[in-house]
User: Fold these one by one.
Assistant:
Number 1:
Amino acid sequence: MASTVLKVAVSGLSRCTRHTLLRTYSTTTPLHQGIPGSVWKLGRLNHIAIAVPDMEKATALYRDVLGATVSDKVPLPEHGVYTVFVELGNTKLELLHPLGEKSPISGFLQKNKSGGMHHICIEVDDINAAIVDLKAKNIRTLSAEPRIGAHGKPVMFLHPKDCDGVLVELEEA
């Protein structure tokens, strides 16, 4: 194994004492070399979704108080939500409010009365290839097939228990 040794002078516990610290940094090739690259690529953060108990109040906060550009409220009955997008320049916030009795946001708001972060959305260049690859790596999805999301593009949610407690939405770029 090839390595580089770096010597750094470090002050000890007293002024008179000096220690030399030897640290080895590996210059070998990464462990994943030789494994074929994925046929899909992870892209940019598309949005952070926030569940809100009062859509009008939340929209007014971002538009009137913070000065952001916000979209109109759009119903997405197939997802059981109303959405409003807040433009931030480098990404967006998606405000979510329940639509209908069986909205997944209703359950979230019952546990989190004031609302809060619901999920993050990351773009992928090929959602079908991403799903096949992630399922092969034992990452569960919340539906069998991608659905059309708020931007009119295919989306898939990944199980938060497989993603360090974060609900991740993948959206085809």
Note: Confidence is low (pLDDT under 50) at residues 1-35.
Number 2:
Amino acid sequence: MLIMETNCSPMELSNNTEFEEDSDYRDFEGTDVKDMRLEAEAVVNDVLFAVSNMFVSKTLPCAEDVAYINVETRERNRYCLELTEAGLRVVAYDFDQADDRLQTPYHETVYSLLDSLSPAYREVFGNALLQRLEALKKDSQS
């Protein structure tokens, strides 16, 4: 067990507002910095219903500026995707791998990337969208 000694009491820390107002320190509180692992989890949760399998890689390193997502399409094709501020791109044709020699284009959204890789994704996603629109139409008519 690691024990840290400090020269101030917890009350002194909670009353110190100087750090909270300084924008340089606000980043460390998570209000301005994007955590790519969280972004990757959101991507997975958004489209998991339309693919066979999708999860954030636990093997490849995630950082503040990059995360890796493994996806298996309904056609049973496997990909490893890189998520950065530039977007998403395929970095390997299997889980938990990144091939530096592979030069694939970035996509701004996961929808665009999966649309280019998987006709079955396109169909499932399109059907889900139609069902949502039909539900909205029914709600607006009642």
Note: The chain is about 40% helix and 15% strand.
